[in-house]
Design goal:
This protein is 29% helix and 22% strand.
């Protein structure tokens, strides 16, 4: 089910920030992201490039600053919106090596908009929405996988 156009214009689906190092020699990741956008699974709200210059220095850069631009990246050149800020950049900093470039995406998961609309139409209110930290999930799964925990 697709959310009605009017309702969807006033609502956002769940949001997520993803950061990864810039793949320079393979267009497959960009093709996969474009396919997700074309399938209306996600909407790219912002795409930023960051480079780490030193231990405590990270900078937003543009595609023109890159030595090598993957061909598939060109489909996303207009996706810079400035929604990501210095706090987002600082969160990426410890994960990059000096000189390494990161791509940071802010995406909206539009596949759930129809479901959210149905809940709201049935009188529900969205009370909480947030990101699950993968390390927390792994820890919870590891704790629940230990059969000896239940015997104590």
């Amino acid at each position: 089910m697709h959310a009605t156009e009017t309702w969807a214009q006033d609502h956002l689906g769940p949001l997520e920030v993803l950061a990864f190092t810039l793949p320079t020699d393979d267009d497959a990741p960009w093709a996969a992201l474009l396919a997700a956008v074309d399938a209306h699974a996600v909407r790219v709200l912002d795409l930023e490039l960051l480079v780490r210059h030193a231990e405590n220095e990270i900078e937003f850069i543009t595609v023109e600053d890159l030595d090598q631009v993957p061909a598939g990246f060109t489909a996303f050149e207009g996706a810079y919106s400035g929604l990501l800020d210095d706090d987002d950049a600082l969160a990426v900093l410890p994960h990059l090596a000096d000189g390494e470039v990161a791509v940071v995406l802010l995406v909206e998961h539009v596949g759930l908009l129809g479901t959210l609309e149905r809940f709201e139409a049935a009188g529900s209110r969205l009370l909480l929405e947030g990101i699950v930290v993968l390390e927390d999930l792994e820890e919870a799964l590891d704790t629940n996988d230990d059969p000896d925990d239940d015997k104590e």
